[in-house]
Amino acid sequence: MVAAGGRDAIVEARQASMKEMAAAAKTIAGIFDGKLAYDAAAFKAAAETIRARSGPALIAEFPSTTLGAPSGARLEIEQARPEFEALANHMGTLAEALAAKARQAPAGITGDMRMGSGLAMGGGSLLGKRPAAEADPAKLPVEHLLHLILQDCSSCHSKFRQKVQ
Ligand code: HEC
Questions:
Q1: How far is the CA of 87 from the centre of ligand 1 (A)?
Q2: pLDDT given at position 124
């Protein structure tokens, strides 16, 4: 494979992977917002899609030779690798917890899956200053895990993604 073709293939593959994560996140958000009917199998598949594409898999999608225009991946990824990888891995840990819960998903939505049901967890209120992500993710309700994951998407995009074209 020639260098240019290789770069394009990697960029295309990661953009496709990002889009799949976005669709999966939308599905889960839709389920909890009541816009989509709850379906344990769909929930499980969506959580697995996010899990499989975060953490080390996400990091591997950004080799240094593929950064910068015409890709949406900024050169800063290379200059701040530890921060980029920490974000990918933070999201990965949350996505692992989400997928583990989805594998055990009940036939119907239960109250303990809802945001707010874990308020006492982690030694502080979610409304407090201490980031709830420091709490054990396995103890957070599914809906809350999704919100934390979406925050990681945004944090990474605001620093490491650029508009191209
Ligand atoms: C650690 C950093 C990081 C995380 C976390 C991350 N992204 Fe991205 N995302 C990027 C970068 C960088 C790009 C630009 C990739 C490119 O164009 O080469 C991108 C691109 C995208 C795109 C545009 C793809 C396209 O077709 O151009 C979407 C959609 C997206 N991300 C969704 C998500 C969602 C949803 C999540 C969370 C579930 C997420 N991302 C988490 C770094 C991240």
A1: 12
A2: 46
Answer whether 84 contacts ligand 1 (Cβ < 6 A): yes
Nearest CA to ligand 1 atom 32: 18
Per-residue pLDDT reduced to its tens digit, 109-140: 999 999 877 554 444 445 555 555 467 999 99
For residue 154, report the distance from its CA to the centre of ligand 1, in Å: 9
* Protein residue whose Cα sits closest to atom 26 of ligand 1: 15
Return the CATH number of 3-62+75-160, one of 1.10.260.40, 1.20.1250.20, 1.20.120.10, 3.40.225.10: 1.20.120.10
Between CA 73 and CA 161, with CA 29 as vertex, the angle to 5 degrees is 10
| pLDDT tens sequence across 65-80 | 999 999 999 999 999 9
Query: Tokens 């494979």 identify what position?
Result: 1
Q: What are the Cα distances from residue 109, in Å, to 31, 34, 62, 114, 147?
A: 9, 10, 36, 8, 17
DSSP assignments along 93-116, one per residue:
HHHHHHHHHHHT--SS--GGGSTT
**56-to-38, 90, 94, 141 alpha-carbon distances in Å:** 30, 10, 13, 24
Residue 61 Cβ contacting ligand 1 at under 6 Å:
no
Q: What is the mean pLDDT of residues 18-34?
A: 96
